[in-house]
Amino acid sequence: MQGASLKVVDGIKSVVRDFLRKALESEAADAVLVPVRTPAKDSYAWILTNDQAVLDEAGPLAPTMPVQGAKALKSLTRKGQGTARVIAVMRPCEVRAAVELSKLNQVHLDNIILLSYDCTGAVPLQDYVGDPAGSEERFDSMLEARKTEESAVKPVCGICVDFSLVDSDIHLGLIGLAGESALLIPNSEKGAALLEAMGIACEEDTSGWMQAVSGLKAEREDKRSKALAETGASLQGFDGLHAAFADCVGCHNCQSACPICYCRQCYFDSEVARRDPAALLDTAIARGGIAFPGDRVMFHTGRMAHMSLSCVSCGQCSDACPVSIPVADIFSYMADLTQATFEYAAGRDDGEPLPLRQYREDEVEKVHEIVKGAEEEEVAHE
Amino acid sequence: MDKGFTPRITALLCQWCSYTGADLAGTSRLQYPTSIIAMKVMCSSRVDPVLLLKAYLSGSGGVLLAGCHPGDCHYEVGNYHTRRRFAILKAIFDTLGLESARLKLSWISASEGPKFAQVANEYTDEIKKMGENPSKKKMFL
Ligand code: SF4
Ligand code: SF4
Ligand code: FES
Q1: 343-362 in A: which are within 8 Å (CB) of B?
Q2: How many whole angstroms from A322 Cα to the centroid of ligand 2?
Q3: Which of A160, A253, A258, A304 has the most ligand 1 atoms within 8 A of CB, as the residue to mutate?
Q4: Ligand lying closest to the C-alpha of residue B108
Q5: Which fold, B9-136?
Q6: Pick from B72, B102, B104: which is nearest to B87 by CA?
Q7: Is the minimum distance from the CB of A313 to ligand 1 under 6 angstroms?
Q8: Contact B67 CB / ligand 3 (< 6 Å)
Q9: In CA terms, which of A54, A151, A298, A365 is 20 to 30 Å from A355?
Q10: B9 SS3 class
Q11: Ligand 1 centre from A93 Cα, in Å?
């Protein structure tokens, strides 16, 4: 793998800005989709633009993620790919969510060039809103140092293993490189064609960067499995589940902030999911009482069954929760498990079909193991 | 344990195979327990895992999902998808320390009346041994 060496003079953000500017000037792209600070300066919004003046104001790497980038891409491409070639600057987890959504036909990536970068993590939204200036500073220092400060970022960012190259078209490598250099790496035919059209030659060796990335990855994998095992241990049984979600107010913000939950109407918000009022009193008498809002465990475990195979551990659900339930840690714990059952990893590869969209007559070992009873009966029947 | 305890088992049976199998068990006068509350669904793959979850959290002693044998689904591949979805739900139960033995998947064809009766009897015994579904007493679910 080879890349183009870039010189970082005025910070990493301006390297990206310069690149985008050139892409627009050379007409290699028609527009860019980037996070831009809101007028009140206390948040960011995704902006689709081809205006250089707007680009000057763009993050274009944002400290926080109020809206998951894959959601913005969905708004742009949900009816199929447009004719405009758009470069979208996204975190690796946003790219992975976009890949998942493209498998679900909610996003169309044909004319989108995903530009990603070595991510040092995102500041929790509440922290950012509470202290925008301080958060900007902390994020910039992490970005320039190319090092995550766990206390400054979302808990899932500190245990993220996909912080670097994912299934993007172009990647900006930063980790392990000296302060004044960065690597622009083409990661798909589309990405390579864009760089070529811009006259950017990719002849730099990337092995040093790759090594640094895999070193950090190994460290993170260890940290992740330990942290998530702890999360899992606290979730056991009805009591564990109830304790985890005891404060849940049933707002379903976690679901609406999730990039993967794309259904126009969620089952859990539908009429059929509501309990029959006439039966509630009977249930209350039988159980000694019944809490409102009800069915919280059903909502969360049901959502796990519906979407954990595609969860990208982006942490948006935790950001969205008004009562600070660590939803993303819980879902990441589950996701690592369900995805492993099918030897699948959400967003890893756009050519890898969704586990629930395909099957194997001769199932993967783990699936066999899990549905053992039925399989044994089947053998007996033969 | 209380000998008189009869669990309620929610049984979701695909209409082309398992429900017909249950019917056959009935018309062949095979005994199977009254614990089975049978519901007809078009195909085992029509059953979203959330429906199984709902039955469980509503206090069903057991939840049985049955369909045609792999390869024999009326919709050709429905039950292969069922198998995967069921595996996910089971994995979630196991991971969360919920009693996954209260979920059961079975393949029963239209001609397997005896097998239906056997599964119904054995599963009922198993659930009897497990006792009441603890969710039946939970206020905060
Ligand atoms: S469940 Fe949470 S962490 Fe997973 S993809 Fe959805 S918002 Fe991101
Ligand atoms: S955002 Fe938090 S309070 Fe709202 S439904 Fe999700 S877990 Fe419950
Ligand atoms: S019709 Fe019986 S399982 Fe599909």
Answers
A1: 355-356, 359-361
A2: 7
A3: A258
A4: 3
A5: Rossmann fold (3.40.50)
A6: B104
A7: yes
A8: yes
A9: A298
A10: strand
A11: 10
Q: How many angstroms does the Cα of residue A324 sit away from the middle of ligand 2?
A: 8
The pLDDT tens digits along chain A (382 residues) read 899 999 999 999 999 999 999 999 999 999 999 999 999 999 999 999 999 999 999 999 999 999 999 999 999 999 887 789 999 999 999 999 999 999 999 999 999 999 999 999 999 999 999 999 999 999 999 999 999 999 999 999 999 999 999 999 999 999 999 889 999 999 999 999 999 999 999 999 999 999 999 999 999 999 999 999 999 999 999 999 999 999 999 999 999 999 999 998 999 999 989 888 888 999 999 899 998 988 999 999 999 999 999 999 999 999 999 999 999 999 999 999 999 999 999 999 999 999 999 999 888 888 888 888 787 877 766 5
Please, which residues have CB within 8 angstroms of residue A200's CB and are 6 or more apart in sequence? A4, A184
The residue to which tokens 């990893």 are assigned: A345
Verify cis geometry, omega within 30 degrees of 0, for the bond prior to A60: yes
What ipTM goes with this model? 0.94
Q: Which ligand is nearest to the CA of B76?
A: 3
Question: Residue A25: CB partners within 8 Å, gap ≥ 6?
Answer: none
Whether the bond between A293 and the residue before it is cis, its omega within 30 degrees of 0, is yes
Whether B91 and chain A come into contact, CB under 8 Å, resolves to: yes
CB contact A287 to B (< 8 Å): yes
Question: Could you tell me which residues come within 8 angstroms of residue A270 by beta carbon, excluding any fewer than 6 positions away?
Answer: none
Measured by CA distance, the residue closest to atom 8 of ligand 2 is: A248
Helix (H) or strand (E) holding A155: helix A155-158
Is B80 touching A (CB cutoff 8 A)? yes
| Alpha carbon of A212 to ligand 3 centroid (Å) | 51
Give the number of residues written for chain B. 141
Count of alpha carbons within 13 angstroms of residue A191, beta-carbon side: 20
User: DSSP label at A369?
Assistant: H
Look at residue B130 and tell me whether its pLDDT is greater than 80. yes
Q: Is A45 exposed, middle or buried (0-12, 13-18, 19+ CB in 10 A)?
A: middle
Residues comprising chain A, all counted: 382
Distance of CA A192 to the CA centre of its chain: 24
